[in-house]
Amino acid sequence: MKLDENFYSQSDTLNIAKQLIGCVWTTRLGGKTTQVKIVETEAYLGITDKASHSANGRLTARTAVMYKSGGLAYVYLIYGIHCLFNIVTNAKDIPHAILIRAGEPTTGIETMAKRRGTNPQNRGLTKGPGNVAKAMGIELSHSGISLCGNQVWIEKGDSIPAAEIIATKRIGVDYAGEDALLPYRFILKNNIYVSGSSKQNEAAIKT
DNA sequence: CAGCTGATGGGCT
DNA sequence: GCCCATCAGCTGG
């Protein structure tokens, strides 16, 4: 069953980010269906979060979608090369979002490999936020699209025991000062599709 | 294995 | 004109 507006517009974004681990993300684009099980997410808590694009209430054409009510996609281009896929959460005017950082491929693996320009056996097929988004066919034009429609949506998957979900600091946000240390990244324990070095991820599990 | 770096373009100051 | 919520490919151990 598709997750709906009620789910995405909950006020506890960290909890949503946690609940998304293990969920199934589907895209049906250009006649191709692709699916991954979500294994890594990162929460961005809006105005008070220095790492967020909406820090200090920053509102531009790009970030405007974050200010809408939960249940939309926020897609943006990073480093001029990669599109990153985010989920807008919380109520209107509370610009929270969750970045999908990695998934485990389940359906349409050939299609994903073709989009990535690699082979289906590649372990990195859907590892890392730029890579999953590309494998899933996400483009800048998808920013603002509803996650309750028939092109891009997420469904509840097998339930994951709480002990299997690990919180760590976020990746690539050193510019955010002390907020760079907040434990807002969630990973599925011991899953090989989680981004970053397995060594660092294991170190995070121990603490 | 770790560590560095060039690629590449929209968004914002 | 500078800054990126990154990645692949290369270097030197």
Please characterize this protein's 3D structure.
The protein has 207 residues and is an alpha+beta fold. 17% of the residues lie in helices and 28% in strands. The protein has 5 helices and 8 strands. The chain has helices spanning 5-8, 13-20, 109-116, 129-135, 198-206; strands at 24-29, 32-44, 73-78, 82-89, 96-107, 152-155, 165-168, 185-188. Strands 1, 2, 3, 4, 5, 6, 7 and 8 form an 8-stranded antiparallel sheet that branches. A hairpin with a 3-residue loop joins strand 3 and strand 4 (82-89). The radius of gyration is 16 Å and the shape is globular. The termini are far apart. The mean pLDDT is 96. The structure holds a DNA duplex (13 and 13 nucleotides).
Outline: globular
Largest sheet: 8 strands, antiparallel
- Average per-residue pLDDT, rounded, comes to 96
Number of strands: 8
Strand content: 25-35%
Q: How many H/I helical runs?
A: 5
Give Rg in angstroms: 16 Å
State the helicity in percent bands: 10-25%
| Cα distance spanning the termini | 35 Å
| Poorly predicted runs | none
SSE series: HHEEEEEHHEEEH
What structural class do you assign from the helix and strand content?
A: alpha+beta
